[in-house]
Design the sequence.
């Protein structure tokens, strides 16, 4: 089983969107049983909250019900997950600082690295931009690339 954790700042916009998009992809391909997926944030600001209302609304428009409640990423997540996927460079740096070993650091990637022809390294934060639909589209494209990378890994 592959274990994937999506990480953003507050765990109410980008990482739940990525979790939903990736979950929908693996469900559609009939391989959800091969994965355990979750999301978390580097901040404590929104602990216990549901995803942002617009995040949930955009997911619902695409047939996805987001029920996740925000939690903070911890060092223990490095033992629980094979892949810690950061939504932007800041989250990536935060995860690398939290990692204790080279093996931990090797698990950390940036989500848009998996998106073909990405126009930027960071998934834009719709909390600030209001681009909830664009963020969902980015997450769909990056999810396809992430799944291909996981399937191609030895």
Sequence:
């Amino acid at each position: 089983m592959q274990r994937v954790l999506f990480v953003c700042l507050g765990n109410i916009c980008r990482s739940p969107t990525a979790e939903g998009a990736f979950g929908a992809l693996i469900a559609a391909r009939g391989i959800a049983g091969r994965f355990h997926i979750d999301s978390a944030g580097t901040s404590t600001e929104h602990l216990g909250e549901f995803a942002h209302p617009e995040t949930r609304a955009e997911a619902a428009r695409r047939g996805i019900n987001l029920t996740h409640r925000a939690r903070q990423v911890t060092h223990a997540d490095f033992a629980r997950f094979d892949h810690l996927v950061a939504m932007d460079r800041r989250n990536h740096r935060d995860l690398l600082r939290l990692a204790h070993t080279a093996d931990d650091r090797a698990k950390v990637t940036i989500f848009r690295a998996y998106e073909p022809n990405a126009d930027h390294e960071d998934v834009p934060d719709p909390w600030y931009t209001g681009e909830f639909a664009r963020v969902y589209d980015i997450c769909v494209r990056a999810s396809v690339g992430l799944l291909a990378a996981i399937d191609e890994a030895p």
The CA atoms of residues 17 and 136 lie 6 Å apart. The helical segments are 14-28, 53-61, 77-80, 89-98, 102-106, 126-129, 132-152. DSSP finds seven helices and four strands in the chain. The chain has a mean pLDDT of 96.
